[in-house]
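User: quick one, fold this
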Amino acid sequence: MAIVEVKVPQLSESVAEATLLQWKKKPGEPVEMDEILIEIETDKVVLEVPAPQSGVMAEIVQGDGATVKLYGLVAAGADQRIDVNSLQRLDGRASTSDLLYLSALYDRAKAIFYGKIRVEPTSHGTGSYQECRNMLLSKDAGADPIPVLEILTNDVVRCGHGATAGALGDEELFYAMSRGFDRDQAQQLMVHGFFRRVINELKDEHVRQRVLSAVRPRIGNIAEMGVLA
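Assistant:
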């Protein structure tokens, strides 16, 4: 089977950063020559990369030294049930993959997170971490994080996970309430601060505002409280 290299167009010096948005095809799917195969978002435009020839997508391979950051936010309430599954697969040399998933759960909402890190036997010197934190904002809310590590080689720099699920502490709320906020406002501040770990990693202002707009109906708008959102 021939291996065909898909080349990204040369980016101008004015482009500060570029992010792979999506592959338009999955392994096993047919591809026509010049069919759009990849979308790449820069701080200027979205680039479409065509397939250099016709064929079948065999496998999507990240090269040596690849770095992948995965972020997730969940704000759920009422009787919502959220199921999230993730797979971090590491291969090649000196590649890294880190995941940060945060949820704020109200009312009777429940979130189940199943995340697997698989370190392939052909990999060398990879690093990976999976972090899942769940904030329970009601005595009836629940979270069930299920981390799985599948390490098939001894040549690993790091591979680990951290998972928690718990309610806000009274001391944390008291600290905010001592600044003049009522209990509900203090909770809003805590949730916004909690989510900032992901929000602050979103470098694109348009994407950041879209994410904030999506979660505000559930977590509130602290700008209305006189606090910068």
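User: anything notable?
Assistant: Residues 225-229 have pLDDT under 50 and may be disordered.
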